[in-house]
Amino acid sequence: MKGLLLRADQSLEIAKLPQPTIKPKEVLIEVKASALNHREIWIQKGLYPGMKLPCILGADGAGIVIKCGSDVSADWLDKEVIVYPAYDWGDNEQAPTRQFRVLGMPDPGTIAEYIAMPVSNLIAKPTYLSWSEAAAIPVAGLTAWRALFSHGGMHKRSKVLITGIGGGVAQAGLSLAVAQGADVYVTSSSKDKIRQAISLGAQGGVNYREDNWHLQLKELSGGIDIVLDSSPSPILDNYFKFMNYGGRIVTYGSTGSPKTSISISKFFLRHIQFIGTAMGSPSEFQELLNFMEHHKIKPTIYKNFSLDQAVEAIETLSKGHQIGKIVLSH
Ligand SMILES: NC(=O)c1ccc[n+]([C@@H]2O[C@H](COP(=O)([O-])OP(=O)(O)OC[C@H]3O[C@@H](n4cnc5c(N)ncnc54)[C@H](OP(=O)(O)O)[C@@H]3O)[C@@H](O)[C@H]2O)c1
């Protein structure tokens, strides 16, 4: 089979690989579409913890079950499924186990013609979604769901700030927050991306490259309850200019700066919560898909490539011009 292989020397290629074999509790999936995340770029640069190469990349995918292991009911054959994109969350909804890991390094990923995985990782693909749309959901959708609902406690009329709206998680968060009836504000380096966010239901946005963006946001929004944040500022005190008392900053990435500083007294006197999050549990994934199906939400897709164009697709992601997900049709 063909698959996107990251070799030990960090080079990427579409390689000819053996078709995976399945264990008794696993199924073989013919992958119909996969999608990219910033994670593939961190891994390619060797910046991800626990690097083990070579490996087939990719965490997002959807496809058809074509073979069942001896312990799996034959009812799964021919089922159209979306893949829960990780292993070993465990039983605790508060946090995963230490063994928790995302597909696509060290375990084989979804950017391949076939993938073997436990049947417990599969969820039926909602029929209103195309293969590309289904594949675009897992990592970004699940991360945004847990951040906004489980950690953020988002409800109708919550005032939500989504930073770096061009990103995949940010776009997923925008559609979930708008469907929930929240008032959404965004930041971006691009006027066009802010305009596009407004056309999708955001109230407005500011450019995070402007020094006084915190003040502009306060002026625009009147105050923010929840921040869905991929890029906390190097100085988090700036957030206190627009955060409402009791607000929650939920952080899932460190695109802008790997470190931040905070004025502790402002932090506690305002009852602010600063919460870290990564991906989500299998039950949150099911809740996400139920919510999306109920509201008929479709992920924003920036561009569709073929599997053979996977290396080009990753180069496109690394340029950062996209709004939404980059998808591969297999
Ligand atoms: N914790 C998790 O489970 C999880 C899951 C997925 C992703 N992530 C992490 O989250 C981050 C975003 O990933 P992604 O795949 O959603 O998006 P992405 O496609 O990597 O896009 C990142 C966006 O970040 C914005 N950005 C860049 N520099 C910024 C800065 N200095 N300040 C504010 N925003 C900035 C840009 O927005 P504009 O173009 O609008 O300017 C860009 O479109 C990455 O660091 C990724 O590793 C974490």
Task: Give a summary of the structure in a few sentences.
The protein has 330 residues and is of the alpha/beta class.
Descriptive report:
This protein is an alpha/beta fold. It has two domains: 2-137 and 299-329, Quinone Oxidoreductase, Chain A, domain 1 (Alpha-Beta Complex), CATH 3.90.180.10; 141-276, Rossmann fold. The chain is 26% helix and 28% strand. The chain is built from nine helices and 18 strands. It has helices at 38-44, 131-135, 138-151, 168-180, 191-199, 213-221, 264-269, 282-295, 310-319, and strands spanning 2-6, 12-16, 26-35, 55-56, 60-68, 80-83, 86-87, 101-102, 114-118, 122-124, 159-162, 183-188, 204-207, 224-229, 243-251, 273-276, 301-306, 325-329. Strands 3, 5, 6, 9, 10, 17 and 18 form a seven-stranded mixed β-sheet that branches. α3 crosses α4 (168-180). The radius of gyration is 20 Å and the shape is globular. It binds NADP nicotinamide-adenine-dinucleotide phosphate.
- Which regions have little confidence, pLDDT < 50, spanning 5+ residues? none
Radius of gyration: 20 Å
Number of spatially distinct domains: 2
Structural class: alpha/beta
| CATH topology tier name of the largest domain | Quinone Oxidoreductase, Chain A, domain 1
Q: What proportion strand?
A: 25-35%
Largest sheet: 7 strands, mixed
Q: Treating each run of at least 4 consecutive H or I residues as one helix, how many helices?
A: 9
- For the record, the CATH architecture of the largest domain stands as Alpha-Beta Complex
Q: Which geometry do the CA atoms define? A: globular
Residue-averaged pLDDT: 96
Q: Estimate the helix proportion, in percent.
A: 25-40%
Bound molecules: NADP nicotinamide-adenine-dinucleotide phosphate
Q: Name the CATH class of the largest domain.
A: Alpha Beta
- In total, how many beta strands? 18
CATH superfamily of the largest domain: Medium-chain alcohol dehydrogenases, catalytic domain
Name the helix and strand elements from N-terminus to C-terminus, one letter apiece: EEEHEEEEEEEHHEHEHEHEEHEHEHE
